[in-house]
Amino acid sequence: MLIINIKDNESIDRALKRYKKKFERTGTMRELRARTAFEKPSVKRRFEVLRAVYKEKTYGHLED
């Protein structure tokens, strides 16, 4: 459970923004979406490799 301490003179909008950011960093929604359907480990690995190839192709020239 996430706990957000509201500071003195802090608006609800600001506290809600901090809550949303903290919630996003925990990765809860990402995990729930991943659990909706089973994905074989080989498929996960293939996706990771494809993503790495794409990143290398896109951002690889920046290291030169």
UniProtKB/TrEMBL annotation:
Keywords, ordered alphabetically: Ribonucleoprotein, Ribosomal protein
Example of a GO MF term: structural constituent of ribosome
UniProt-listed Pfam families: Ribosomal_S21
Biological process, per Gene Ontology: translation
Cellular-component GO terms for this entry: ribonucleoprotein complex; ribosome
Source organism superkingdom: Bacteria
Family membership: Belongs to the bacterial ribosomal protein bS21 family.
The protein, known as: Small ribosomal subunit protein bS21
Lineage of producing organism: Bacteria, Pseudomonadati, Bacteroidota, Cytophagia, Cytophagales
